# Entry
Amino acid sequence: MKSLEELKAIREQMKKQLDVRDQSDNNIRVAVGMATCGIAAGAKPVLTAFLQEVDRRNLRGISVTQTGCIGVCRLEPIVEVYVPGQEKVTYVKVQPEMVPTIVTEHLVNRQVVTKFTIGAAEREEEKA
Amino acid sequence: MKELSLHLLDIAKNSTAAGATLVRIELTESAQRLLTIRVADNGRGMPPSLLAAVSDPFTTTRTTRKVGLGIPLYRMAAEQTGGSVELESAEGSGTVVTARFHLDHLDCAPLGDLPGTFALIIQGSPQVDFLFSHTTLRGGYTLDTREMREMLGPEVALDAPEVFAWITEYLWEQEAGL
# Structure
């Protein structure tokens, strides 16, 4: 059985890493749109997948946050990635299966996954 | 919304947006398969004019995004089971949203992933305290973030991925025990 006591172990474990996390100005930030439109479009499993992937890979310096309506509800679920010193990248119609790729390619290797971005989606729409 | 949990994830944000420091989310399943979901916060509350209008989907304070489709969709989900949504609010002291669902009604959406939902509600507003409870005829459990903070200390925020994983697993076990 899990107990509240286990949180003490998390505390001890994270104390050791605090020096790294404290530099929050340098953190990469992932913001998942979690307004009514986002939730209805399936943002919950996407947000869960980001949190699980960051935890599973024990990645540091990445904060996963929830945000409101980004304004293009038809393209939800929407995820914004802020890498310090770089332009914001907006991923649209994000599915949980896409999350490991975004984490590996963008958050770790710093290569934008262009095919999932809003720019790629809009070019598709123009063709159609 | 395909699950009642998703509505909860949505309307809990109204409480945190209203500046609540403590939000109580209580699910109580009683005889005749009636589920009551009560969300009570100590946020800034609503004036009577706004309270009367929030269930209207065309009433929206878009600049602050306090309301919109959230409450109307929640009301629809409850009323289509023969249930209801009641709002009580007092300016300066908070808001209580009480919804009743008839779980055996054909049009009742499944409760869905309650552990994952509670975990994300905490993760989304790590500075706010939450008290969750789920009570059925077979038993119940509670989770209080104030107790979690005592264990975690000031260094560890409630939105850390490690804490999210713990909350999800802990609540799955609690749900399995019901």
Notes: The first helix of chain B runs from residue 4 to 17.
